[in-house]
């Protein structure tokens, strides 16, 4: 199976309203590429990176995702990203997602270190919810909608 | 629906609830397995995830379920009220300095760390003991704990039920405010409604108050996420019919249910300790600025939690697990779980308003408790989404508008400030009136803000 690749610069997403917090919707031809796009949408909502970000030293981190269904794989993957930002203090700028088996993926993340001085914090996304989480595949497009707790 | 749903609201508030999925979520909550008697929605109720915010649901300990989503992500998000030994006239001339001093001293905003990183062994001890850990380390007074729900230490907390990932998120966040709707507000007592109850709690007109709203930070969110995940498996295994995956649950007596409750109590202890550490920072700032100053805890209460409580039902008693998701415990006088003056007069119920509006101190007054499972509202409740609120005005106009009303604001981010502007919330006066008219809690004092520190 081919790996799906995405970078932070070219990912696109739609911001959704919620009475308490907010959500994101992405659309792309494959579930896997939508998964990467929703992750970058979330990461971009959490931090605005300084313009010199690409000059920073990069590290590579591999994340394994294993779930019982596609919804759970979204939630677990995004939780991994939250952990990278708040605990490891790094931000993926490019990701390559390799499907391994059903609902099992290996994601190679190229990350930069977050800078307290240069990067601007945005929404403090603390958790990913199952509330109104949807995956709709139609007309050759896969749309994913996720709401976040901030 | 397995049981009825009871809503406390006036005409305006109920129309606001009808504007989103609040009532659908209440119906979903009333459809959970083992839910007892009825579910309740408070007048500040609005749409959340799974459970509505402002929702209360009780479950029979032996036959019911516990839902991680029914407690929410920010376990033991709660409010603490401090009374300073200063009057408005003493503080007002230095209010800008005071606001700035607190803003600089209390780490607030997205991604901010605390002043120190706890060792793993200290964090485990803190998770087991909550605010008692602070007392042992010299960060609390005995009287602080006496004025905190459960003395700031929930029994049955087990750090082993908390994942390494959750521990990592909490290790450097003790004593931090966070972002979103969390705040520290400097207020004064504008009006006393019940002299006797106010006196019991040491409250007089023009006393300066500091109100803290914060919770268990990233640790609590990770605990909820971890256990929500394990509850998904239970739902699948037992074939439970639940209307929203965020309402995933497990029988209370099951290993998954017990594990969640042990972890939830640990996260709740983290939140009690967090508000205690913020209190210590406020005391230190107070001393630096005014040379001296006493700061007494009036009360500290959770509004996102599940608690085991005993209720009289018919001729007998029943032990229930009461989920309060954006609802405050409101025990009346003589309740057996209250001690000392609170047993004599009732538990203070702390209701923050929105930035720039009044807040309230009430006291629990519903003797039967069965109508709301001894619960009251937890605030004003959001009326607008963050995105919609952000379009209403810019941060400069908001700060100037509040300043013209004598309220000084410091915020970690401009977007965070405008998302929390006063009109993004319901009318707190109307919300509190509903609570009093319904006989759930009685007004003791109204507080007016003079300084706001927003995360």
Strand-helix topology:
The complex is a heterodimer of chains A (150) and B (455).
Chain A: E1 4-7, E2 14-17, E3 22-28, H1 31-46, E4 47-48, E5 58-66, H2 70-86, E6 90-101, E7 104-113, E8 120-121, E9 127-128, E10 134-138, E11 141-149
Helix pairs in contact in A: 1-2
Chain B: E1 4-7, H1 11-17, H2 22-29, E2 38-46, E3 53-60, E4 65-67, H3 68-71, E5 78-87, H4 88-91, H5 95-105, H6 120-129, H7 131-136, H8 142-146, H9 164-170, E6 183-192, H10 195-200, E7 207-214, H11 217-238, E8 249-251, H12 255-290, E9 295-302, E10 304-313, E11 316-325, E12 328-329, H13 340-345, E13 348-351, E14 359-364, E15 375-376, H14 386-392, H15 395-404, E16 408-411, H16 414-419, H17 428-437, E17 441-454
Parallel strand pairs in B: 1-2, 16-17
Antiparallel strand pairs in B: 2-3, 3-11, 4-8, 5-7, 5-9, 6-7, 6-17, 10-11, 12-15, 13-14, 14-17
Helix pairs in contact in B: 5-12, 6-12, 9-11, 11-12
Give a structural overview.
The complex is a heterodimer of chains A (150) and B (455). Chain A is of the alpha+beta class. Chain A has one domain (4-149): Archease, Possible Chaperone, Chain: A, domain 1 (3-Layer(bab) Sandwich). Chain A contains 2 helices and 11 strands, in the order βββαββαββββββ. Chain A has helices at residues 31-46, 70-86, and strands at residues 4-7, 14-17, 22-28, 47-48, 58-66, 90-101, 104-113, 120-121, 127-128, 134-138, 141-149. In chain A, helix 1 runs parallel beside helix 2 (70-86). Chain B is of the alpha+beta class and 455 residues long. Chain B has a single domain, classed as tRNA-splicing ligase RtcB, CATH 3.90.1860.10. Chain B has 17 helices and 17 strands. Chain B has helices spanning 11-17, 22-29, 68-71, 88-91, 95-105, 120-129, 131-136, 142-146, 164-170, 195-200, 217-238, 255-290, 340-345, 386-392, 395-404, 414-419, 428-437; strands at 4-7, 38-46, 53-60, 65-67, 78-87, 183-192, 207-214, 249-251, 295-302, 304-313, 316-325, 328-329, 348-351, 359-364, 375-376, 408-411, 441-454. In chain B, the strands form 4 sheets. In chain B, strands 5, 6, 7, 9, 13, 14, 16 and 17 form an 8-stranded mixed β-sheet that branches. Chain B is globular. The two termini of chain B are 39 Å apart. The A-B interface holds A 15, 17-22, 46-47, 68, 71-72, 75-76, 79, 83, 85-87, 114, 121-124, 126-131, 133, 147, 149-150 and B 20, 22, 46-50, 53, 69, 73-74, 109-111, 165, 168-169, 178-180, 218, 221-222, 224-225, 228-229, 232-233, 236, 244-246, 248, 382, 384-388, 412-413, 415, 455.
């Amino acid at each position: 199976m081919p790996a799906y690749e995405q970078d932070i610069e070219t990912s696109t997403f739609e911001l959704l309203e919620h009475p308490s917090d907010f959500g994101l919707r992405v659309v792309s031809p494959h579930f896997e590429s939508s998964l990467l796009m929703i992750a970058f949408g979330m990461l971009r909502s959490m931090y605005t990176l300084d313009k010199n970000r690409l000059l920073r030293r990069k590290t590579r981190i591999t994340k394994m995702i294993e779930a019982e269904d596609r919804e759970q794989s979204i939630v677990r993957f995004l939780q991994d990203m939250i952990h990278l930002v708040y605990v490891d203090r790094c931000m993926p700028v490019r990701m390559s997602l390799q499907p391994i088996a059903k609902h099992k993926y290996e994601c190679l993340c190229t990350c930069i270190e977050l800078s307290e001085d240069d990067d601007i914090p945005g929404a403090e996304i603390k958790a990913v919810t199952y509330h109104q989480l949807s995956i709709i595949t139609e007309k050759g497009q896969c749309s994913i909608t996720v709401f976040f707790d901030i | 629906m397995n049981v009825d749903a009871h809503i406390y609201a006036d005409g305006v508030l109920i129309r606001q609830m009808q504007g989103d999925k609040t009532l659908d979520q209440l119906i979903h909550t009333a459809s959970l397995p083992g839910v007892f008697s009825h579910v309740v929605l408070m007048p500040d109720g609005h749409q959340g995830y799974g459970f509505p915010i402002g929702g209360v649901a009780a479950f029979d300990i032996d036959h019911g379920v516990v839902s991680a989503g029914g407690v929410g992500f920010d376990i033991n998000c709660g409010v603490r009220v401090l009374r300073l030994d200063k009057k408005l006239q003493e503080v007002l001339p230095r209010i800008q300095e005071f606001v700035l001093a607190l803003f600089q001293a209390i780490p607030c905003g997205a991604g901010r760390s605390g002043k120190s990183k706890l060792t793993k062994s200290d964090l485990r001890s803190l998770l087991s003991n909550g605010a008692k850990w602070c007392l042992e380390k010299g960060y609390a007074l005995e009287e602080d704990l006496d004025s905190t729900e459960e003395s700031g230490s929930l029994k049955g907390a087990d750090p082993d039920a908390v994942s390494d990932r959750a521990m990592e998120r909490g290790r450097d966040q003790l004593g931090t405010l966070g972002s979103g709707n969390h705040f520290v507000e400097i207020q004064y007592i504008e009006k006393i409604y019940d002299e006797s109850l106010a006196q019991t709690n040491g409250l007089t007109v023009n006393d300066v108050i500091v109100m803290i709203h914060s919770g268990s930070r990233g640790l609590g969110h990770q605990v909820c996420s971890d256990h929500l995940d394990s509850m998904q498996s239970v739902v699948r295994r037992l074939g439970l019919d639940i209307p929203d995956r965020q309402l995933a649950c497990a029988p209370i007596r099951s290993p998954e249910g017990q594990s969640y409750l042990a972890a939830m109590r640990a996260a709740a202890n983290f939140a009690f300790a967090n508000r205690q550490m913020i209190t210590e920072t406020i005391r230190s700032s107070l001393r630096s600025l005014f040379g001296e100053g006493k700061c007494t805890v009036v009360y500290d209460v959770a509004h996102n939690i599940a608690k085991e409580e005993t209720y009289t039902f018919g001729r007998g008693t029943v032990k229930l697990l009461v989920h309060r998701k954006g609802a405050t415990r409101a025990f009346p006088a003589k309740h057996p779980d209250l001690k000392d003056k609170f047993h004599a007069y009732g538990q203070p119920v702390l209701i923050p308003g929105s930035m720039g509006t009044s807040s309230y101190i009430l006291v629990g007054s519903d003797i039967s408790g069965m109508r709301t499972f001894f619960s009251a509202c937890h605030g004003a409740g959001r009326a607008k989404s963050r995105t919609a609120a952000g379009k209403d005005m810019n941060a400069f106009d908001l700060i100037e508008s509040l300043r013209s009303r004598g309220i000084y604001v410091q915020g970690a981010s401009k977007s965070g400030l405008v998302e929390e502007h006063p009109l993004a919330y319901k009318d707190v006066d109307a919300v509190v009136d509903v609570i009093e008219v319904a006989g759930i809690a009685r007004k003791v004092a109204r507080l007016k803000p003079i300084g706001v520190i927003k995360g």
